[in-house]
């Protein structure tokens, strides 16, 4: 690994400004993003799939319409939707391109690359070029796409931008027993479950740590059995009644707070980088991963791994 400052550090710090830019765009995309009442599928791979899970839950909770989330490789052929939303930073990932080819529904694309195959496949791609990144590990694009989609639902989100700025200004400090934990379980309720999945992925990708993620109320149905001293349980969003007492009894370190789950994800991202560097790993280029997965038959030769 080089001694240079990892690109992902700068990308983590770019997030609040990128979110503010995206929120300014959200009101101008009414003809492209899902309309109220439409039956919508949201698809992505890796991190983008977790963005899809969070947005689907948010859209349904807002009463905007039935919304399903799929890993692109699991998109169901033949199911009828009014619109399909595809999230892909690179715009080259094979599985998402195949979804666009197969569906008969209008497709909305969110990508960071204007001249990508995915952007060229639709009439009006939403190109978040200002949120593109050099690191294989996704931070700023994924959270920016999610904030754009959240903003399109009419939710005021300026406070989330402010929270993230405060987290970064204070160095994303954490209790010592959390920062040094040997295993992490991330919990979230509703849409925050998608953010919990992404938190776990960031720690696995960057620092090669053992992480898991669950809906909060599922945690007591088995996974709590691994909690013990030296391990950490991190709740993104408001804790469910009684769960903090159950976790405290295990001896595991417990982290909760008043941050919006996306702002709290910034703390996870920052910790993942610190743990990676402490272990002598390159947080920009995790082993076996590339920026996107391109399989034979679509877009060129195959490559292993990917961040979509």
UniProtKB/TrEMBL annotation:
It comes from Streptantibioticus silvisoli. The keyword 4Fe-4S does not apply. InterPro entries: GlmS/AgaS_SIS (IPR035466), GlmS/FrlB_SIS (IPR035490), SIS_dom_sf (IPR046348). This is Sugar isomerase. One of its GO terms (molecular function) is isomerase activity. CDD domains: SIS_GlmS_GlmD_1, SIS_GlmS_GlmD_2. It comes from the Bacteria. The keyword Isomerase applies.
